[in-house]
Amino acid sequence: MTADLSQIVKAYDVRGVVPDQWDEALAELFGAAFVQVTDADAIVIGHDMRPSSPGLSGAFARGAAARGADVTLIGLCSTDQLYFASGHFGLPGAMFTASHNPAQYNGIKMCRAGAAPVGQDTGLAEIRELVESWSDSGAPTPVEKPGTVTEHDTLTEYAGYLLSLVDLSSMRPLKVVVDAGNGMGGHTVPTVFASLPVTLVPMYFELDGTFPNHEANPLDPANIVDLQERVRSEGADLGLAFDGDADRCFVVDERGEGVSPSAITALVAARELAKHPGGTVIHNLITSWSVPEVVRENGGEPVRTRVGHSFIKQEMANTGAIFGGEHSAHYYFRDFWNADTGMLAALHVLAALGSQDGTLSELVAQYDRYRGSGEINSTVDDQSARTAAVKAAYASQPGVTLDELDGLTVTTENWWFNLRPSNTEPLLRLNVEARDEETLAKVRDEVLALVRAK
């Protein structure tokens, strides 16, 4: 019977419940299909700490080797560590993780050599077709000379490479609380931080894919409460929270207050522009006004894109950008093969804070200039109709500009908002920014009244 992959093959990756939606037999077919589509004679494979990850990645390796590819297993790793291996060795790669999803989920993030993404338009659709075909007719006949499977731990090389990209030589001692959420940050942070003048206070570093303490999704404020309390109780200089596969990093200041990813984007952009004068910096359309302002102030060229890593990475490649940031705490670096790495962003924050005597809240104040609502979700029956109603309400107002690069963005001199439909749920996502809290509240409430009107 042909496998139905429509529920697990997403726009940029494979993700679903194990074993209900996919299992090791399908993983083996994905391995074979990946090699065939990428025409690879060698690949690298890594996995996270989920209970199903070793079996699934091993099955993928068998499928890849049966098609003639030599496989290097790098074992437990963060997603950005897999990207490092892909870039460092110049090989296509596959990472077994479901990021911040619950324990019963797993998935595959695939890339071509140099960490170039594999998505629907860049090979994933062909991989799906092959797997569906083979699940119906049987796996392809193994090639005459199957590939080898070897192991290579890249953690030390990964840490060394990241540390080579940031000048930490003048950093003062800092006390840092890190919440790994029982995810891969617990594996990577001790090695990356080992040589730094840091007193590390670890939280939930035990690798446990059942996530016994909280979801490994720091985007949800409920999941950083423990970190905020610990930063305050320890009198720490800052806190860092990583998601399950440790490719995203969230920052908490010395007061236990969350630092906007837009402010981190602006801070890192300024530092990257000091290294690469005149460079281009990518930001998505719901990052703060602060980001393009800081980029211009530091002699750079800001470029605005749609939300989503595929758009960011594409623009990075098109423009030769030195850096890119998203509101979701994904940070992309030209020096890291245009891939995202929360760890490198964290090192920039440590370097910036450690090179001066002030607090983190004082440091980031210059990059956090406006008031933002955060993302507000509304369940609606008809996304298009609700969006059209909002557009009609603002289109004729004086001083208003509208664009539809990604959803609807409405901008004035004193505020802007973006209203975007979810691709997977009947939701509209609203982000508002204004010059003061009163204006923010007024615009937010006006738009929500239109979105939620009965």
Automatic annotation (TrEMBL):
Q: What is this protein called?
A: Phosphomannomutase/phosphoglucomutase
State the organism of origin: Streptomyces albipurpureus
The protein's UniProt keywords, in alphabetical order, are: Isomerase, Magnesium, Metal-binding, Phosphoprotein
Which top-level group of life is the source organism from?
Answer: Bacteria
Q: What InterPro entries does this protein map onto?
A: A-D-PHexomutase_a/b/a-I (IPR005844), A-D-PHexomutase_a/b/a-I/II/III (IPR016055), A-D-PHexomutase_a/b/a-II (IPR005845), A-D-PHexomutase_a/b/a-III (IPR005846), A-D-PHexomutase_C (IPR005843), A-D-PHexomutase_C_sf (IPR036900), Alpha-D-phosphohexomutase_SF (IPR005841)
Required cofactor names = Mg(2+)
Q: Which residues form the Alpha-D-phosphohexomutase alpha/beta/alpha domain?
A: 7-134, 158-256, 264-370
**Pfam families listed in its UniProt record:** PGM_PMM_I (PF02878), PGM_PMM_II (PF02879), PGM_PMM_III (PF02880), PGM_PMM_IV (PF00408)
Specify whether Ribonucleoprotein is a keyword of the entry: no
Where is each Alpha-D-phosphohexomutase C-terminal domain found?
Answer: 375-449
Give the family, as the similarity comment puts it.
Answer: Belongs to the phosphohexose mutase family.
